[in-house]
């Protein structure tokens, strides 16, 4: 199993925790979208968060969408995940380039700048749940930590990291998500806060090639860590030509007729996985017939 998430509890269920290694899925996203290093880091962090938050959902068909609309040069990001931790995503401007920060790090905060983070959970109810918060730093992990505290009233610590090789491929990617349950005792809260404050950065832990289990043991080992299970996670897009056909039908007969009148085949591109689907004029005529 290459990329996976570990689910765990600690302190007699007062703490719940997730940790993930996502190097391969982030590298897949990078190669699919041909993202710049800073775009890879931003998208990789959001994909990692999406995979862990997807794994938190209960229903078979539940879908989570994380969307960032922002004023920075990256333009915005969208990630969706299902409850099996299959994720996909894209950035609006994959070629964004920025100089590194004063600490020599990829400037994800600068790429995003100000904006809004939306968390949309489609759990098969009439209306999806939508939680929105302002971006507090644009670094994504801190923004999600703030989201959990303000929108879901769950004190959380989120850490997300992506490390790049010199040739701009992904060296390491992963993160953790640790949450306190409402009945957590003061001493547990204080102990956890102290431990998390000692962690310099998630990328340091990833750089040491620590597994998700080792990361959780490092943070929660003193709290009676119990590993519940592991879940595979991967970059996966469920687009097919059939689904794209449905999208063409939805644009309406008039527009389809115009495409036919142009007498040129069309190409439809999937945002999430960059796959292109070609439809000949004959296929468009068939779609028009079926769209009564």
From TrEMBL:
One GO-annotated biological process of the protein: protein refolding
PTM notes: Under oxidizing conditions two disulfide bonds are formed involving the reactive cysteines. Under reducing conditions zinc is bound to the reactive cysteines and the protein is inactive.
GO CC entries: cytoplasm
Keyword annotations of the record: Chaperone, Cytoplasm, Disulfide bond, Redox-active center, Zinc
UniProt GO molecular function: protein folding chaperone; unfolded protein binding
CDD domains for this protein: Hsp33 (cd00498)
A Pfam family: HSP33
PANTHER family reported for this sequence: 33 KDA CHAPERONIN (PTHR30111)
Stored NCBIfam families: PRK00114.1
Family that this chain belongs to: Belongs to the HSP33 family.
Descriptive protein name: 33 kDa chaperonin
């Amino acid at each position: 199993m290459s990329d996976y998430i570990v689910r765990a509890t600690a302190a007699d269920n007062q703490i719940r925790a997730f940790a993930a290694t996502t190097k391969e899925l982030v590298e897949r996203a990078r190669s699919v979208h041909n993202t710049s290093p800073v775009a890879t880091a931003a998208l990789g962090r959001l994909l990692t968060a999406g995979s862990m938050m997807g794994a938190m959902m209960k229903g078979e068909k539940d879908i989570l969408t994380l969307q960032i609309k922002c004023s920075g040069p990256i333009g915005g990001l969208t990630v969706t995940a299902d409850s099996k931790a299959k994720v996909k995503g894209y950035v609006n401007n994959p070629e964004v380039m920025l100089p590194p920060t004063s600490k020599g790090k990829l400037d994800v905060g600068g790429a995003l700048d100000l904006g809004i983070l939306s968390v949309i959970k489609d759990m098969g109810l009439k209306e999806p749940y939508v939680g929105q918060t302002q971006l507090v730093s644009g670094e994504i992990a801190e923004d999600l930590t703030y989201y959990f505290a303000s929108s879901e009233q769950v004190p959380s610590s989120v850490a997300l990291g992506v490390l790049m090789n010199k040739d701009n491929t992904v060296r390491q990617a992963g993160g953790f998500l640790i949450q306190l349950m409402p009945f957590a005792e003061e001493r547990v809260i204080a102990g956890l806060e102290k431990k998390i404050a000692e962690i310099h950065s998630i990328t340091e832990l990833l750089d040491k090639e620590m597994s998700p289990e080792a990361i959780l043991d490092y943070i929660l080992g003193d709290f009676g860590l119990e590993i519940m299970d592991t879940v595979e996670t991967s970059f996966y897009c469920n687009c097919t030509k059939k689904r794209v056909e449905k999208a063409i039908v939805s644009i309406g007969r008039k527009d389809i007729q115009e495409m036919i009148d142009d007498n040129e085949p069309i190409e439809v591109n999937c945002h999430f996985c960059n796959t292109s689907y070609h439809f000949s004029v004959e296929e468009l005529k068939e779609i028009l017939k079926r769209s009564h």
